């Protein structure tokens, strides 16, 4: 309300000034004096006002970050975050220095060289040396800035050391799901065609794939029977629709059979290192936890559209793109509890937000993140249910495509050779 009143007063004030200037114009016209005749005194005053405006402008610029420092993000809570903040600070210094130099010059010259009758501006058309300086200096600074950025980015996205803990962050409209590796320390293969209520991330294991195939085959058989039963009563166009459905289901079966062959080949080629043998003990959860002071490789996938995983306190962000896996390295350095002390806020929680406008509930696509000691993390993680219980792992090799007993035995316990 108060803001509205102030705005109204300001608008009215402006209107009054405008009307007054019109009155002044009209009286000048009646007096016969030329409107465009501006005295030197006026120009001098305008020059001094330029200085005043410039000074207030720059003082406010410095004051602003101090006044609003309480809404800034707290100190970076990851190793990578410190790198990002350093880069940020470097950029601010660079921009700040250029900003102040150019603005001080701008307002100084505007106020110093106001128009005076009979005084003419100095004609200075060209100077090669000057051209060189203001081309080369910004080029060098810009190239250095870009190289600095590339170096930091390459460190954040560098291939992690073998054995680095992997955590998958899975996005869909409009929530996040997380996947942690089981005993084998590796995340298993995934395929979107296996996604259903029991397998929200589409983890591929022999059992999951067999179950999906069985379901699809049943569906296809049913659809075929249904189509055949109604073949002589249905009009042609509806029959065509049914044919399409049947063909679609059969195609799906074909593709999954292809995936199955691929999987078996991969297992044959890579043995225990096959990514298809790492999914059974994966843990899928709606809670996001990370251990402090531990190198983590975050892997991102998306089910539907492009989202962006944004962890502001860790200064981390990565797009999540359907059809591909994106990744970053992160090493959290401050636990949630410590951050509560630092921010003097007992309710503080790290947050993961979607940072890409992805649909109607984008604004609410977020999840808290708990950073804790590695002990606390293990306690939290160990009780998470695994994707397929160990007993079930034996069942899934019940119908191996072609494998010796020895091979099957090795496959029942994925990752034991690791
Ligand atoms: Cu989103």
Structure commentary:
This protein has three domains: 38-156, no CATH class; 189-277 and 391-412; 283-382, Immunoglobulin-like (Sandwich), CATH 2.60.40.420. A five-stranded mixed beta sheet has the order 3-2-1-5-8, with no helix packed on it. The radius of gyration is 34 Å and the shape is elongated. With 418 residues, it is an alpha+beta fold. The protein starts with a helix and ends in a 6-residue tail after the last helix. It has helices at residues 2-31, 40-67, 79-112, 128-156, 206-230, 236-270, 336-342, 374-382, 390-395, 405-412, and strands at residues 165-172, 175-180, 283-285, 288-291, 296-302, 307-311, 316-320, 326-330, 350-354, 366-372. Mean pLDDT is 86; it is low at 392-418. β6 (307-311) and β7 (316-320) form a beta hairpin. The longest helix has 35 residues, at 236-270. α2 packs antiparallel against α3 and α3 (79-112) runs antiparallel to α4. The chain has ten helices and ten strands. Bound molecules: copper (II) ion. Copper (II) ion binds next to loops.
Instruction: Give the oligomeric state of the chains in this entry, treating copies of one chain as homo and distinct chains as hetero.
Output: single chain
Largest β sheet strand count, sense and barrel closure: 5 strands, mixed
The H/E string reads HHHHEEHHEEEEEEHEEHHH
The helicity comes to: 40-55%
The low-confidence runs, each spanning 5 or more residues with pLDDT under 50, are: 392-418
- Which small compounds were modeled alongside the protein? copper (II) ion
Mean pLDDT figure: 86
What number of domains? 3
Label the structural class: alpha+beta
How would you write the strand order of the largest sheet?
Answer: 3-2-1-5-8
Number of helices: 10
Question: How large is the radius of gyration?
Answer: 34 Å
**End-to-end CA span:** 67 Å
Question: How large is the share of residues in beta strands?
Answer: 5-15%
β-strand number = 10
Question: Shape from CA axes?
Answer: elongated
